[in-house]
Amino acid sequence: MSEQLTEPRDIVEELNAKLRFIVGVCLAFTLTGTIFAVLYSLIHVTQPMSVSPNDMKFFELIQPIATFLTGTLSGIMLSGQGSSRKKKDQE
Question: Cβ(20)–Cβ(76) under 8 Å?
Answer without folding.
Answer: yes
